[in-house]
Write a structure and sequence with these properties.
alpha/beta, Peroxisomal Thiolase, Chain A, domain 1, 5-stranded mixed β-sheet, 10 helices, 13 strands
Length: 328
């Protein structure tokens, strides 16, 4: 049976850093308050008229340079983002064109912070079908474009970034083994952007009321994120006959340090096996899991058992079990 395996990882975060001290000049907050509640010290911000596709192009170019592949050999490019350059065309088509992937099909998916988990399963199934040999998956968000920097409860949370992966077929016992995806539409009132879609189109009123930015009811989201991420990770571990001791890495969505701590405790995974970079990047939405893989790539060994998990608006959440496919 043909399986799908990640054979390369690329990533990009903007150079500009916004610290907690910088945010304290904009809203009533301070470093101690932010660190104690969400564990974020700084976040990266993209400016100067650049958009989501700029970050993705950097990540994909790095990926292709590291793997040495010909961009014209790429069969498809799929992008998971909630902050695409435009409503249409899909941001993936811009990325494919700008990176020379001229023979690739391209489309976007949108699953908020759970975007990379959905992307991984989608890309893997294209490879498993036997019809495609090389698919690039891109997951990223320019969260600064939908953050209200006058809201002290949400502006410390978010940062910008993007990750990219190359997925190819393998007959070896490695790769993307199993994925579980879930959704609960009753979560809509607790985490969403109030305006900008067809239900509430842009107007002077929506702009004046800052309705084109993230609205979140933190306590509700916190409780669901902890329980759902931990439970679905435990479910996929059990479904694949693993013990917690056999897990080499737990890679959770970087939403909030307290959520990461709570999820790791519920799974009994030692913190040294949990990939955490939220202090430096904040919540980068769909980018957070691939950015962890990008940063930890040099520490990963072929055959490492990894559990990836994420939770986001929708509510939508999921977990993936994979065996890492290569030594760096």
């Amino acid at each position: 049976m043909v399986n799908a395996v990640i054979t390369g990882i690329g990533g990009y975060v903007p150079e500009e850093i916004i610290t907690n001290e910088d945010l304290a000049k904009l809203v009533d907050t301070n470093d101690e308050w932010i660190m104690s509640r969400v564990g974020i010290k700084e976040r990266r911000i993209l400016r100067n008229g650049k958009a989501m596709s700029f970050m993705a192009i950097q990540a994909v170019n790095e990926l292709m340079e590291k793997t040495g592949i010909d961009p014209e050999s790429v069969d498809g490019l799929i992008c998971a983002t909630s902050t695409g350059d435009y409503f249409f065309p899909p941001t993936s088509s811009i990325i494919a064109y700008q990176t020379g992937c001229k023979n690739a099909f391209a489309f976007d998916i949108q699953a908020a912070c759970n975007g990379f988990i959905c992307l991984t399963e989608t890309v893997a199934n294209f490879i498993r079908s036997g019809r495609y040999k090389r698919i690039i998956g891109v997951a990223g968000d320019m969260m600064s474009s939908i953050t209200n920097y006058a809201d002290r409860t949400t502006c410390p949370l978010f940062g910008d970034g993007c990750g990219a992966m190359l997925v190819e077929p393998t007959n070896e016992p490695v790769g993307i083994i199993d994925t579980i995806l879930r959704a609960d539409g009753s979560g809509l009132p607790h985490l969403h952007m109030k305006a900008g879609g067809s239900l509430r189109m842009p107007s002077h009123e929506t702009v004046d009321n800052n309705e084109h930015t993230v609205y979140q009811e933190g306590q509700v989201v916190f409780k669901r994120a902890v329980s759902e991420m931990a439970d679905i990770a435990a479910e996929i571990i059990e479904r694949n006959g693993l013990s917690v001791d056999q897990i080499d890495w737990f890679v959770p969505h970087q939403a909030n340090m307290r959520i990461l701590d709570a999820a790791a405790r519920r799974l009994n995974v030692p913190i040294e096996k949990v990939m955490i970079n939220i202090e430096r990047y904040g919540n980068t939405s769909a980018a957070s899991v691939p950015l962890c893989l990008w940063e930890w790539e040099s520490k990963l060994k072929k055959g490492d058992n990894m559990i990836l998990a994420a939770f986001g608006a929708g509510f939508t959440w999921g977990a993936t079990y994979m065996k890492w496919g290569y030594n760096t």
